[in-house]
Amino acid sequence: MKLVLFRAGAAGEPAPGLLTDRGVIDISGIVAKSYTPQLTMQGLIDGFDRLRPTLEKLAAEAQAVPLAAVHLAPPLPRPGKILCCIANYWEHAQREPRPLNMFLKNPEAVIGPGDTIRLPEFTEPWIFMHEAELALVMKGPAKLVKQADWRSAVFGYTCLIDVSARGEGRRTWKTGSWLGKSFDTFAPIGPCIATADEIPEPNDLVVRFWNDGQLRHNYNTDDMEHRVPALVEFASTVMTLNTGDIIACGTNHEGLGALQDGETVEIEIERIGRMRLDVVDPLKRTWERGVYMGADSTNPEAVRRHRPQTG
Question: What CATH number is given for 82-303 in this structure?
Answer without folding.
Answer: 3.90.850.10
